[in-house]
Amino acid sequence: MNSRRLNLTPLGWWALAAIYAGLFGGIWLDGCRGAVEVTPVHDHRFVLYAVTAVAGVIAAIIGFTQSQDSGLQRVMVGLMMFGVIAGLATYWLSSAVAAALDQQADFPPAQTRTFTATLVVGSAHRHFHKGESWDIETAGPTPVTLNITRYDYGFMLNTVGQGPAVALSGNNIAANGAFCIKVTVQTAGAAMRIVHGNRTLPAGTVGLCRGGDDAAAQALSRF
Known about the structure:
Shape: elongated
Radius of gyration: 23 Å
Largest sheet: 9 strands, antiparallel
Number of domains: 2
Order of helices and strands: HEHHEEEHEEEEEH
Number of strands: 9
Strand content: 15-25%
Helix content: 40-55%
Structural class: alpha+beta
């Protein structure tokens, strides 16, 4: 393999195209999920890891056999260009499909009720991986992570010190019951999910919880 192009058989090119299509398809499907399930908790990690590993090994073998390079270069094509990417594609696709099937089973339309609820925020975080992003984790026995806007994270950071919330290391906030989110919730029996349309909650979703005679909370609350 030279530095300019891959040396694959026609079948190898088709296989590589299918792998990358699966990767981008899985990422797209995951981004299309309009709700995150709170209860019940479905743990498919071991199945996903097993399927991912098997797919990665099979793809690595295909890449190795369809590469027209030799020696270490041929091994690297099989492992990196085929095996690793196929593993990622399988994981994204499998997790998105599993989540969709779980929610379809847990929320039959005839039994699903939709309403607006206020949930307590447990913590907030700012991340710098591949750009800047912000998320919150709800409080309670089954916390879920939801993306928020810069605006809402800034609101939380600017009101730290006017209530029980505490900033940690400048990028994380321990909410301590100070902040709440108002979201659309669906329930069906014991199952519950938060509907958010896309992966980021709209600006203005986060506010100070109304509690007691806390003057600061009453003055700053956006609910």
